[in-house]
Specification:
The chain is of the alpha/beta class. The protein has 21 helices and 15 strands. Helix 10 links the parallel strand 11 and strand 12. Helix 4 runs parallel beside helix 5, helix 5 runs parallel beside helix 6 and helix 17 crosses helix 18. The C terminus is likely disordered.
C-alpha cells in the first residue's frame, strides 16, 4: 500500500505552476501528481498549469508589452521613484512614476532619466487632476509628450480636462488595416461608476472641437476621436492609501466591469478593468482576479520597498504597521473642501495634528480670530514655529507657483488660514521622504490596510525586513502566490479536501531573494 502524501509533497506538486496537477484515484486514497492518470489510478480532478503570466487578461500584457497583468501605481512626490519604475520595468512589469507634487523641472529631469535608463521598455507617468492649478496638468502633459512617454496613469479626475484629452487624442492615427491606433495609452484610476463612465466613452465632441480650434490636436485626430474610448484601461480603486473612497473591492470591481460591458464600442476591444486598493497579499491578488479584474495594481506595499523614494526611517515604520494602523486625515489639495487621505498612524501623530487644523479652520474665520491658547498650541505642538514665519514661507512659494492664491488671501482671512494649514500638510509628506532627524510625529505617510496585511504575510521571513523588499521580488512573490492559491481553489471546487499545511501560502523563511530576475519567486 502506498503511504499517504505529506503536506510538503502535496505542496510541491501544487507549487510547480508550469506543470499540470492531476488528482488520481482510487477515491479513498487520492494523490496529487504531475504524472498522467492510468487505468490503475484514474483521474479524479485536474488543475492545469498556471504560470503567473497567465493570470489576468492576455490583452493587458500584449497592449502594454509586459510579462504579467500587474502594475505598480503612482505614489506622489516621486515616492514611486525613477529607481522603482526602472526596477519593475526591467522585471517585465508596468509601473507609474509618481509625478504628482513635483515641480516641472524635477519632473523633466526624472522623465529624461527614465528615457535614458529604459529606452523602449514600457512604463507610465502619473497625471493628477489639479483643478486649482490647471497649469500643472499642462506642464505634465507637455513633458510627457516631449519625452515620448507612451502611457499615462490619470488619477483623481472627476471631469475630463483639455490637457488630459490632448495627451490621449494627439496619439491617434489610422493603422494599416484602417483601424484606429492610440499611440498614447491612458490608464484611468477611478472609484465611482459615474467617473468611470467618463473614461469608458469617447471624448466629448465639444472638448474635441475646442482642442482642434486651438491647434492642440490635428484634424485627423479630431476625426478619429469618437472611435476610441478615452481610456484603454480603468483601474478601480478600493480601500487604498492616500485619496480613497474606501470602497469594498468585491463590490466596486464587478459593478464597473458591468458598466464597461454596457458601454463597449462596437468593433473595439473592450476597456480592461483593473483592481487597486487592499492588494497586499497573494490572497488579495487571487481574489481580485476572481472578481473579474483584468489586472491588479499595488501601491502601499511598494512604498516600503528599497527602490521607493521615501526615507529608510519611514520604510521601517511601514514595515512594522498592522492592518489597523491607518486613519483618514485632511488632504492638502482638498483641505477647504473637507477632502481626506488615508495615512499611517504608527509612529506618527500626523492624523491627529491634521484633524486639529481642520477643526480650527472649520470653527474660526481667520488666524486673527484664534484664541491665544490655540495659537500657542498651534505654534508649539503642530507648526513648530510662529505663524508669521509660516505665512512668509507660504507667500514666497505662492508668488512663483500660484500668485492668484495670494491675491485671494489678501481679501479672505479664512483662505489665508487654509493656506497656512496646507503648508503644514504639504511639508509633512516631504518630511517623511527626507527622514533623518526630522520629527516623525509630523510625518505624513500615505498608507492603506494592505501594508499591514503584507507585513503579516511576510512575518518571520527575509521580506519582513524592508532592506530586502525589492519591488520586483515583491511583485514576483505576490503573483506566484496568487497562481498557487488559484490552483488550490480550482481543486477545492471539485470537492477535494486538502490539509491546511499544504495550501497555506506564505514566503519561505529560507528562500533566497534574487534581484534582477524576471518573474522570480515562490509561494512557499
Amino acid at each position: 500500500m502506498t503511504a499517504p502524501q505529506s503536506p510538503a509533497e502535496l505542496r510541491a506538486v501544487l507549487d510547480a505552476l508550469d506543470r499540470p496537477c492531476y488528482v488520481t484515484g482510487p477515491p479513498h486514497a487520492p494523490r496529487l501528481t504531475h504524472d498522467r492518470p492510468t487505468a490503475a489510478r484514474p483521474l479524479l480532478a485536474y488543475a492545469p498549469p498556471l504560470p503567473v503570466e497567465r493570470l489576468g487578461a492576455p490583452a493587458f500584457r500584449a497592449h502594454h508589452g509586459v510579462a504579467a497583468a500587474y502594475m505598480a501605481g503612482a505614489m506622489a512626490v516621486g515616492i514611486a521613484s525613477v529607481d522603482l519604475v526602472s526596477a519593475l520595468a526591467r522585471a517585465g512589469h508596468l509601473a507609474s512614476f509618481g509625478a504628482a507634487g513635483l515641480a516641472p523641472d524635477r519632473l523633466d529631469d526624472a522623465l529624461a532619466e527614465l528615457r535614458r535608463r529604459l529606452d523602449d521598455r514600457p512604463y507610465a507617468c502619473n497625471l493628477i487632476h489639479s483643478p486649482g492649478a490647471p497649469q500643472l496638468e499642462r506642464h505634465c502633459v507637455d513633458l510627457c509628450l516631449r519625452h515620448g512617454v507612451r502611457c499615462v496613469e490619470a488619477s483623481a479626475f472627476v471631469q475630463l480636462t483639455p490637457d488630459l484629452l490632448r495627451y490621449r487624442l494627439s496619439g491617434l492615427r489610422r493603422g494599416p488595416d484602417g483601424s484606429v491606433v492610440a499611440g498614447n495609452r491612458l490608464i484611468a484610476k477611478v472609484s465611482r461608476p459615474e467617473t468611470a463612465r467618463l473614461f469608458l466613452r469617447p471624448a466629448p465632441a465639444a472638448l474635441v472641437a475646442e482642442l482642434t480650434r486651438a491647434g492642440r490636436i490635428g484634424a485627423e485626430q479630431a476625426a478619429l476621436a469618437d472611435r476610441v474610448p478615452v481610456a484603454d484601461d480603468v483601474t478601480v480603486e478600493a480601500d487604498s492609501g492616500g485619496h480613497t473612497d474606501r470602497r469594498p473591492l468585491t463590490v466596486i470591481v464587478p459593478l464597473i466591469a458591468a458598466l464597461r460591458d454596457d458601454l463597449a464600442l462596437p468593433g473595439r476591444a473592450p476597456v480592461r478593468i483593473g483592481a487597486a486598493g487592499g492588494i497586499g497579499t497573494p490572497y488579495a491578488v487571487a481574489a481580485a482576479f476572481a472578481a473579474g479584474a483584468d489586472y491588479v495594481v499595488t501601491g502601499s506595499v511598494n512604498q516600503a520597498c528599497v527602490e521607493a523614494g521615501t526615507s529608510p526611517e519611514a520604510k521601517q515604520l511601514l514595515a512594522e504597521a498592522g492592518p489597523t494602523d491607518v486613519a483618514m486625515a485632511p488632504a492638502a489639495d482638498l483641505f477647504e473642501q473637507g477632502g481626506t487621505v488615508q495615512v499611517l498612524t504608527r509612529g506618527t501623530r500626523f492624523a491627529q495634528h491634521a484633524g486639529y487644523l481642520y477643526r480650527l479652520y472649520r470653527d474660526h474665520d481667520g488666524l486673527d480670530t484664534l484664541p491665544a491658547h490655540q495659537v500657542r498650541r498651534l505654534e508649539t505642538t503642530v507648526l513648530g514655529r510662529p505663524l508669521t514665519e509660516v505665512w512668509q514661507e507660504t507667500a514666497a512659494f505662492l508668488r512663483t507657483r500660484a500668485p492668484h492664491e495670494l491675491t485671494r488671501a489678501d481679501g479672505d482671512a479664512k483662505h489665508r488660514m487654509a493656506l497656512v494649514f496646507r503648508w503644514y500638510l504639504a511639508m509633512s509628506s516631504r518630511r517623511a521622504t527626507r527622514g533623518g532627524t526630522d520629527d516623525a510625529a509630523h510625518w505624513q505617510i500615505w498608507c492603506g490596510p494592505a501594508m499591514g496585511a503584507f507585513n503579516a504575510w511576510t512575518a518571520g521571513t527575509p521580506l519582513a525586513d524592508p532592506r530586502h523588499r525589492h519591488a520586483a521580488i515583491v511583485a514576483a512573490r505576490l503573483l506566484h502566490g496568487a497562481a498557487f492559491l488559484t490552483r488550490v481553489h480550482a481543486l477545492r471546487a471539485t470537492g477535494l479536501t486538502l490539509p491546511t499545511e499544504a495550501t497555506r501560502c506564505h514566503p519561505s523563511p529560507g528562500a533566497r531573494l534574487e534581484r534582477g530576475t524576471r518573474m522570480s519567486g515562490s509561494a512557499r
